[in-house]
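thread: overnight batch results

M.L. [08:02]
morning all. the overnight job finished for the chain we discussed friday. pasting input first so we're all looking at the same thing
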Amino acid sequence: MAEFKEAPADAPLGVKFMTWVDNRFPATKMYKEHMSEYYAPKNFNFWYFFGSLAMLVLVIQIVTGIFLVMNYKPDAAVAFASVEYIMRDVPWGWLVRYMHSTGASAFFIVVYLHMFRGLIYGSYRKPRELVWIFGCMIFLCLMAEAFMGYLLPWGQMSYWGAQVIINLFAAVPFVGPDLAILIRGDYVVGDATLNRFFSFHVIAVPLVLLGLVVAHIIALHEVGSNNPDGIEIKAKKDANGIPLDGIPFHPYYSVHDLLGVGFFLMAFTAVLFFAPEGGGYFLEANNFIPADPLQTPPHIAPVWYFTPFYSMLRATTDVMTVVFSILVAGCIVITLLSGKVSSTTKTVTFLGGGLAIALLGGLKALLATLGMNSVLSLLAHTPVLNLLLGFDAKFWGVVVMGGAVVILFFLPWLDNSPVKSIRYRPSWHKYVYLVFVIYFVVLGYLGIQPPSTIGTIISQIGTLLYFGFFLLMPWWSQLGQFKPVPDRVTFSAH
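M.L. [08:03]
and the structure it wrote out:
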């Protein structure tokens, strides 16, 4: 049992109260560990605003969500009408609803920029692998939360978007149809689906999300924050054990982050009051029409933050499967010949398993393309091959879409660069990241547009570039002339 501390008899009432609390709960200890005595690098730049902004948007979503639930009815017969009631009759209901819908898009904008900062500065590298993995798990939770919340307004795009995405699960071999029924709760998207999604969106996923956010912050504060130079500030400390290049997070960065909060709130409120629908990207026009199971919209597309991955799904054809299989095989060969086998053992193992399946899936498409049906028929008589060759392009599209997210988890073991930060990498590395970002944005745009031949070709190129960026990283990340990394962080007052 810990020894109780006693406040001086003449101490102020506030001091006595905090002493009483500290004897029963480590409030002051936690404040010191995570705020006033948590030393962060002194060279943070504007890229480091987005972590705190993500926390801010999370709070906005939770608070506005609570007020929306007070008036929303998760019933297929009245869900759309309850949203209209919130918008028209509930005092300031329109503002709360638009804050929530705009906040969803703002959340993904902030998270994408936060992840990009980690990518360019190597924040996923040792010893922060677990910080990155927790972050990727948060990203997955956000996608699930956004998808389930998108159905709740029960508009045309909500209904048919959910119908399309849930049907993708039916492509999973053996358990697909049953899995789709389990998610829907019925044979079609209906009242049971709405109730399930409501319960997950309001209770289950937010609890997991909050737990992951706490784990993410604890893991970060355990190993310390990265910085634009990629230098570990804990390596050089003064006589008191304080990092020479570190400053207390509070008050320096807590006040510093207020600058980012101010700019964010100006942009957020500008969109909120002048363009809450975001030109149709944040809220589609079809979602202001009640869901009608008998009338399919002319073009169904998910919300913008899902569209890069949706483009990859649509780009996966039989021929694309062959090309993708060759890409995976080539990536493994290049990795093995790069002389870095020891540092990429786990990567090669992961890619090797995917290669076996991908090649078999590509084999079927190749044989069908070449008209070699007799060979295909012969292979189909082999039980194991028949099992794998039976997968169609729809299944491989789901694999590619899911793999585009899952591959992010392996990033700490894919990067073989001798330095962390892009500042000290060869100049041409910046163009590699630039091409990656441009094509990711292009994929997002194409995912919103109706399918077209040229759009499919561009999406296929973008998909290959996306996976090539990661799968070839063990090779290209170690190429070029690297700049010397300084012993201390580079910093100039501003």
